[in-house]
Each structure stands twice: as C-alpha cells, then as structure tokens.
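worker-3 :: picked Oxygen-insensitive NADPH nitroreductase
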Amino acid sequence: MTDVLPLLQSHRSIRQFRSDPLPEGLLENIVRCGQQASSSSNLQAYRIIQITDQDLRKQLSTLAGQQAYVLEAPVFLVFCADLRRAQEVCDEVGPPFVAGMTEHFLIATVDTALCAQNCTVAAESQGLGACYIGAVRNHPAEISTLLGLPQQVYPLFGLCLGYPAQEVEVKPRLPLAAVLQENRFDENRDAALIAQYDHTMKAYYQTRSTGQKTSSWSQEVASLAGREARPHMAEFLRQKGFLQR
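worker-3 :: tokens ->
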C-alpha cells in the first residue's frame, strides 16, 4: 500500500523557497498527475500556464497583493478554468456551444481545483512545498489581459512550487465531528466543536507566532465572511461569458 495518508495529513503552505530548480521532467510529471484527477464527463476544463518571464512574474506578484513568493518560487503556475476548448470542439463537431450555463462554470471550476490538488500532492510527494495564491482574483481582468486569456477562460488561482526553505507546523483543522456526519445535516454540536477548535487555534498561533498572534478561527472567519469579498468577480465572470443562466 502507498503510504499516502500521512502525506495528505502533513500538508502545509510553504512561502519561502530555496532557489534550486526542479529536476528536468519533474514539473511535467506533476502536471500529468494533475491530469489524472477526476473530471466531470471527462471534460478536463482547465489550462495551466507556467510563468517563466520574470517581468511578467513581477506584474503578477504586484496584482496578487505584492506576495513576494509569487516572484521568488522556482515555479509559479496559474490555473485557469477553461471552457474555450469545449467551445472550439462544439464549433468543430456540433452541436453549437451553449454559453453562460452555471453548471458548466461549476464543472470547469471544480475540474481545475481537483487538477491543482493532484498536482500539489504529487509535488509534496517529491519533497516540494506548495502555496496556493487565491489573490490572482484580486485583479482578474488585468491578469487575463497579461496572460491573453480569451472568453470562456478565467484565472482561478496561482500555485507556487519549490523546495522549502522554512519549517512550518501543520495547521490544525476543525474537529472531525464537525465535518463528517451521518445521513443528515446536523449543526447541534457546532457551537461546542467550534469553541474547542478556537482554543486549539489560539494555542497554535501562540506557538507559531511566539505569542504575536492571538486570533481564533471564529474571529478569522467572521472577518472574512462578514464583509464583501472580491465583489468585482461576478461582473468579471459575466463579461467572460460565464454565469448568465
């Protein structure tokens, strides 16, 4: 049996990388692993763009919240949900492509995320570290222009890959009972489980940040879900041909 369970349970986001390049062929093998992820109806509605041009990297780093590791990681990939390929197939063999369907958008988005997670697990199995960059959605229109993304394609997130130059503790997750339930949705125990998790996260931050961070999970969730988050995305996606019906 492949000892993959400990690998999956040891995932950490790495934001400091050694300058060592990846061995020849490793990135291609990682992407092949991504391609073997589950795909709804085998649509494979994603495209991965490796950014090797340093000037382009600088621009993307600026647009993605000035995150230095976007510029410094040996490999930076932009994962795009891509229905353009499906549109071109429809144009070639028929019937005509039906644009703007929310279900197609969901398929493309899920396909892209599953592919990226396979890539991340494959990379970590080879001793690499990874960090997702959701901040590419801070300025999706500008990034689309920089990368030449056509209609029916949008940038979902970036992914930094490289050999870690830091030791990072595994961040605790919610108690299993808050996530795994039987037969029906049940929130009766949520308050107690969240209180337990808040205590765990406060202790984690005290250790990780030498006492400089005292936030709980509840406080962080409230600061995120209690405000508008990238409200420009809805109009951007509609302009790209998504979410019209």
